[in-house]
Amino acid sequence: MTTTTALAESLDTPLELKELHALDAYWRAANYLGAAQVYLRNNCLLEEPLRPEHIKNRLLGHWGTVPGINFCYTHINRLIRLHDLSMMLVTGPGHGAPANLANLFLEGTLSEFYPELVHTKAGVTKLIEMFSVPGGNPSHLHPGTPGCIHEGGELGYALATAFGSVFDNPDLITACIVGDGEAETGPTATAWHSTKFLNPVRDGAVLPILHINGYKISSTTLFGAMSDRELLDLFTGYGYAVHIVSAEGETPQERAESHFRMASAMETAYQSIRRIQHEARHGQREERPKWPVVLLRSPKGWTGPQTVDGKQMEGSFRSHQVPAIDCKSNPAHLEIVEKWFRSYDLPALFTDGVPNSELLATCPIGDKRMGMSSHAYGGAVRKDLALPDFRQFAVAATTPGSVSLGDTGELGKYLREVILENEASGNFRIFCPDEMTSNRLGAVFQATHRQFAWPTNTQDDFMSPEGRVIEVLSEHNCQGWLQGYLLTGRHGLFPCYEAFAPIVDSMMNQFGKFLKVSDEIPWRKPVSSLNYLLTSEGWRQDHN
Amino acid sequence: MTTTTALAESLDTPLELKELHALDAYWRAANYLGAAQVYLRNNCLLEEPLRPEHIKNRLLGHWGTVPGINFCYTHINRLIRLHDLSMMLVTGPGHGAPANLANLFLEGTLSEFYPELVHTKAGVTKLIEMFSVPGGNPSHLHPGTPGCIHEGGELGYALATAFGSVFDNPDLITACIVGDGEAETGPTATAWHSTKFLNPVRDGAVLPILHINGYKISSTTLFGAMSDRELLDLFTGYGYAVHIVSAEGETPQERAESHFRMASAMETAYQSIRRIQHEARHGQREERPKWPVVLLRSPKGWTGPQTVDGKQMEGSFRSHQVPAIDCKSNPAHLEIVEKWFRSYDLPALFTDGVPNSELLATCPIGDKRMGMSSHAYGGAVRKDLALPDFRQFAVAATTPGSVSLGDTGELGKYLREVILENEASGNFRIFCPDEMTSNRLGAVFQATHRQFAWPTNTQDDFMSPEGRVIEVLSEHNCQGWLQGYLLTGRHGLFPCYEAFAPIVDSMMNQFGKFLKVSDEIPWRKPVSSLNYLLTSEGWRQDHN
């Protein structure tokens, strides 16, 4: 324990052994609740020996990512408590919903929306029973998950969505858990550049945690195969201050170091966010601010079964979905599941089904809980946009064909006024793949600039660390940013050549589904529409 | 000249001043022909003072990227000549077609397909006249451009296409010019990881040149704003050996250093490709081979007008498309264009309209010219796939409903035989977003592995540096690789959950257009079909 103590003492905010004990207990409780949701239909607190009839008929949800998400959640919660932060969470690995639900249950958010999911034995039982059964909680994040603004699942957009949420939210820090599977996608690969657009004065910050458990469905991930040196170089090159955390250990004692390392990385990351913001907000803007990123390496299916049928399970692709999946019919599998579940030491975590107060005390309270972040309920905080009278922008054309003017040129003047009228509220943005000028919308640059934070040359037009327009040659980033911006209650426009709009076809599809499902959830109020301006029409792409 | 000489002497293959002179002359000729195509309808060799009637009615094509593409082409040509290489070119900035056409003209490829485009005054005139006029050469790369397998344009897929072309082509090196605009896209951002899949024994190599001219349509690019240190870190992290080349200079003398630097980088890059391949092919496979990448910084619109209307043009976003665009109506613009065009010193480049032999001697000859690479005409080199009799894989089911089997499970057995029967010819691959096993196609792993070149853990199943299957969680990479593989005459399959297929909607659209146009070009023979296997049907994405 010497090293541990030294590390603990080196923290700015020391992590005492008592707190460590509570954090690990919280994490184990979340792991148990995550796993139990996947497998159990009753005997939810293992009061009896596990029997086949306690197992759900169909096992859904992905266990592999659950302990990693829980580890992140545990340590984000610690950060929120220590510094009384306003934080939100975007989770990329959407099939890890059992993890999110477990944490939302423990922090008490679920019961705010689903009154039966309280901290009682009945509540725990209900949480576990209702997972992935008809009418219950789906196996995937969705609008019915409190605090959720992104489903994950169609992988790759979590990071851009997270950045979209913090534009013009100076006090918000959005944590974003990116899976190492989705990190292979193009949309994620370019979304890492988003910090180059972030204005530390008017915008908040994203705290990305790339969760490298090494495997996607059935093979090693690119990021899992990369060396620490390669990871360090890559993310330093993207512009980040990189914190690589290795986490492992089968017992609380073995995990102590991992908790210290994660707490230290999170604390340092947080301090660097505040330093960048503080300096910029006091006139000392850094030229290339090194926003933090945490790269967390942990075993896939951490704390799950070591081996099943003689094959390695924990720390391999085989724990991606449901380990020992035949536990309903195969007694050996059932035994593995029971041994695994009991390894969390339930009597130390729950008393007569009620989570112990020591572990619950690691959660933030009230609206500081991530599930309660007002930003995640954009429809409720949304303010109407001030809109000028469009009639003032009408072109006098009494005789047909007597005036020759471009429609977008006139629209640009209108948008200029929209920007001016809403400048103070800062709740309108245009995200565009570098087509503002070619789309003749240049009039907006009489009122604002393109926001870009990295140094540019003096001959650049209309580029500044602050502006209402963000241009990047990535339709995926434009769409992801705008979705995050809208879902946190703001307004925006996405002008795009029609020929390039299909690039975000699948994102639009999924966003539409998110809105459709949101509409059926009473506590989700409508957000502003996602406005596309399609120009240069023609799907045949003759010129582009 | 001391430094220059020292640098020149330090090259493995010394670049003598005489050759330098010829290379620069070739480059100037390509620049002139590139620019002249954009502007001129006649007086194509400037035998008369430039007058408004010599200017085309509509000016298309993008000048800004032309000199950079030409600079790359010049130095790739040098490499081919020095080492007698088989190289192909994939050009991302498709609107730079005037550059590609100029080089294809000078190397004599164009006349092989368009007999009137010979090295005569009439040929030069025809080349320039026929650009961007009805029935002539489009302003964009297209299947009618010899050697072209990728249109660019819808940006982001050049790099994946280039990697697709070299799988199972051990002797081929495909150079790939990536624009710093398209480098902002997600598909390009993740395609850089492609070297982690490359097998140095059976595959060829890609020599990527990221051309950083600093600007997209109207603003600074991300890569233009990055420091050399950031670029070095980023690409080192991706796994590359990075060569940053800064090129500039308004006169041949001022450019000498730039030519030396580029020649040196290209030579070193080539040597490292051969070293990696040689070692791997002699049993000394490197664990993480550092394939080379060249990052070329050069001014946008290099050698074009310095200023127009008092605003900086060369080295700024303003030279992205057509500088001094009003030259038909504005005498000041016309004067700028004439001065610019004459700055190339045409009498030193052409004699009575015929390009001088000294500059032509810098080109490779015969089928070593990039426009003549047989790989670029996949339909001509394509060999039929050996296909087992599918009847052997029929499931006996005399009574409806009497057999319960998954269709993809049976297909997997068939695909296993396809792989076995074509193993020696090595012309069939499956590209898949990590869904082979979940799609029940696992039988193929009785015959082959997933190809992956970076170190993996021992518990991984079916992963090896050699295999017929490539899995990555990027549908963009799967599609781009497969396009490159098919267009160079091979066969392939892309299994994908139906819900994720729209991710490549726009790529499929553009590929369809490429095939449609190819069909109208007599010297393009049909390539194999792009086979999708859509599984887990359902556009509503209920589970995914």
User: What ranges of chain A have pLDDT less than 50 throughout 5 or more consecutive residues?
Assistant: 539-544
Based on DSSP secondary structure assignment, what is the total number of beta strands of chain A? 15
Helix content of chain A: 25-40%
Any idea what the radius of gyration of chain A is?
25 Å
What do the pLDDT scores of chain A average to?
94
Topology:
Two copies of one chain form a homodimer.
Chain A: H1 2-10, H2 17-39, H3 66-83, E1 87-91, H4 97-106, H5 110-113, H6 121-129, H7 158-166, E2 173-179, H8 186-191, E3 205-212, H9 222-225, H10 228-238, E4 241-246, H11 252-281, E5 292-297, E6 307-308, E7 311-312, H12 331-342, H13 346-349, E8 350-351, E9 354-355, H14 357-360, H15 378-381, H16 407-421, E10 428-432, E11 450-451, E12 463-464, E13 469-471, H17 475-487, E14 491-497, H18 505-518, E15 531-535
Parallel strand pairs in A: 1-2, 2-3, 3-5, 4-5, 10-13, 10-14, 11-12, 14-15
Antiparallel strand pairs in A: 6-7, 8-9
Helix pairs in contact in A: 1-11, 2-3, 2-4, 2-6, 2-11, 3-4, 3-11, 7-17
